[in-house]
Each structure stands twice: as structure tokens, then as C-alpha cells.
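thought: user wants a sequence for this fold. calling inverse folding tool.
action: design(structure=
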């Protein structure tokens, strides 16, 4: 049995966009290229409208397809695998320790960290919302079994209010999660995650930490240091670590950084 980590660009979204493009093109043909409407202002307006919509839908479909190909675990680029394995490389959990992965999705990062730390336990949580309907707890468990990672546990949870006591974990991780959560203060979400970290524990959090989404992260790093956190740094992952600047731009991942450090 092989693991199935799905794709960060859901196939349903790609197919939905393709269907939308097809319908737009069909309507363009019907209203613009057939005698259904006589020549005149209405036909001209509809032709222009459906031409624009068709072009936008085709471009969107091509973009989604390229994203799907790049993120595929079985494709040539395998960016998702590169990111997951790259993040897991930073995660070191003491024997008998416990780590938390916030927004585990299909379990990829949780499992990768568990495999690198076989004498520790990783807990993965996610809300598993309808946006990613193919991601669920059963899939995570199945993938964990396929990978031979028996030191994992998965449960439903909310990143905005974690159901754990302060200082519960030796490590906390997350990958491309918080930017998807509607919030005017994502730094507050980070602090909620860090609340659960034990004294001496480490954190590895990867996301699109642009100023538009997160505010001033350099100031946030200084804030964490003033709170007693150690070795806090922001690592830009768009300059060759996980992707090239060009990939980050066309994929909409500009600003991707790892926030890491020790409590």
C-alpha cells in the first residue's frame, strides 16, 4: 500500500475550472458565432463578455493545472515532497517526547516528522473543512500505516483555539496553513500555537508570511526574542531552498518563510 497525500491544488478545483472554461467557450460560440441572435448591439456585447470570461477561465485553468503538476507527489517537480521533507529535517524531538503539527491535512508533515523521530510521538490536528474535502482523519491514518509510522495520532482541532494546555509539546510545526485562515491578526494565531510549546521546545512554522498577510514579521521576531524565545529566525524559502523566485511569483507563494526558534 502506498501513501496518498493528495495535492495542495485539489483535482476538483482544476476540473471545475476546466468545465467553467468549456461552458464559457460554448456560450461564446452560441451567442457570437451562430445566427441565434441577429447582428447588433446585444450580440456584440455578449460576444465581448463571453470572450473575456473564456480567456480568463482558460488562463485560470492552465494556472491550476500547472500548480497541480508542480505539487504532485508523483510528478517531476514534486515541490510538496521537497517542502515536507525539508521542514522535517529541522524537527528534532527528544525520545518519548511529543510534537504537534497544526493543520496536518493529509498527514504528510506529521508523518515525515514521526519517521525522523521514531522514539517520539507526533500529533496532527486539522479542521478538515469542505475546502479540502478529500483530506480527512481516515486518510491521515491510512497514510501513516502505509509509511509504517506507528507513532502518530490524528484528531480534529482548531488553530485559533487549540485544545491543549500551555507547554504541552516539545515541538510545534505547521506548513502553509495560517494564511488560509480568515484573520486580521495572524501573529496572534502564531502565539496561540507557541503557547502550547514547552520551555526548551522548538518550533518550525512555514507559511506565506508576507506583510499583507502577517504584518511586520521582523518586529514579531524581535517580540518573540523579548519574550524569552531563543534562536528565532525567519528563513526565506523562495530563493532556492524550496522553490525559485520565479516559481514563488507565478504560484502566488511569494513571501514564503520558515519561522523557527526555541522557547
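)
observation: tool returned 263 residues.
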Amino acid at each position: 500500500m502506498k501513501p496518498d497525500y493528495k495535492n495542495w491544488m485539489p483535482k476538483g478545483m482544476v476540473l471545475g475550472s476546466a468545465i467553467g472554461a468549456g461552458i464559457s467557450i460554448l456560450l461564446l460560440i452560441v451567442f457570437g458565432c451562430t445566427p441565434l441572435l441577429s447582428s447588433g448591439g446585444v450580440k456584440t456585447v455578449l460576444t465581448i463578455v463571453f470572450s473575456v470570461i473564456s480567456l480568463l477561465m482558460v488562463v485560470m485553468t492552465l494556472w491550476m493545472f500547472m500548480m497541480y503538476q508542480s505539487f504532485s507527489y508523483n510528478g517531476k517537480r514534486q515541490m510538496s515532497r521537497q517542502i515536507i521533507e525539508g521542514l522535517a529535517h529541522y524537527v528534532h524531538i527528544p525520545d518519548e517526547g511529543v510534537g504537534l503539527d497544526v493543520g496536518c491535512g493529509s498527514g504528510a508533515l506529521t508523518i515525515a516528522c514521526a519517521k525522523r523521530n521514531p522514539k517520539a510521538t507526533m500529533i496532527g490536528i486539522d479542521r478538515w473543512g469542505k475546502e479540502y474535502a478529500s483530506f480527512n482523519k481516515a486518510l491521515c491514518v491510512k497514510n501513516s500505516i502505509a509509511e509504517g509510522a506507528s507513532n502518530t495520532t490524528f484528531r480534529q482541532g482548531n488553530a485559533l483555539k487549540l485544545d491543549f494546555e500551555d507547554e504541552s509539546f516539545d515541538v510545534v510545526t505547521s506548513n502553509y496553513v495560517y494564511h488560509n485562515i480568515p484573520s486580521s491578526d495572524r501573529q496572534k494565531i502564531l502565539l496561540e500555537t507557541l503557547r502550547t510549546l514547552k520551555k526548551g521546545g522548538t518550533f518550525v512554522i512555514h507559511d506565506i508570511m508576507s506583510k499583507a498577510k502577517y504584518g511586520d514579521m521582523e518586529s514579531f521576531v524581535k517580540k518573540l526574542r523579548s519574550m524569552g524565545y531563543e534562536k528565532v529566525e525567519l528563513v526565506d524559502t523562495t530563493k532556492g531552498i524550496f522553490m525559485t523566485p520565479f516559481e514563488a511569483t507565478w504560484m502566488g507563494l511569494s513571501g514564503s518563510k520558515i519561522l523557527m526558534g526555541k522557547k
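thought: summarizing for user.
answer: Here is the designed sequence. The mean pLDDT is 95.
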